[in-house]
Amino acid sequence: MKRIIVDYKKLTPEILSLLVEKYPDGYDDDHVISFKNxxxxxxxxxxxxxxxxxxxxxxxxRLENTMANFxxxxxxxxxxxxxxxxxxxxxxxxxxxxx
Length: 99
Fold this sequence. Notes:
Elements: E1 2-6, H1 13-22, E2 32-36, E3 42-49, E4 53-58, H2 61-68
Parallel strand pairs: 1-4
Antiparallel strand pairs: 2-3, 3-4
C-alpha cells in the first residue's frame, strides 16, 4: 500500500471528496496524526484511505475552509485529479441588468 503525504497545494477534488466523506463535520484533535518528516519537522495530518493508498493530508486553516466549502458538483470530471489550487475558480453566472 502506498503512503502519500499531501499538502493543501497538491490536494485534488478526489482526495478532498474522501476527506469530506470521512469527516463530514470536520476533524478534531482525535483525528490528527503527528509525525516527523525527513527534515525532522513535526507535521500534523489527517488520514484518508483508498483501496491502494493511504493519504496523510497536512492540517491547515486553508484545508478546514476548503473542506467546509467543498461541493463535488463544482468540479468537472476532467478536473477531478488536478490539484485544486490549479483549477480556476468558477464565477457565478449573473445577469447584468440595466442600472
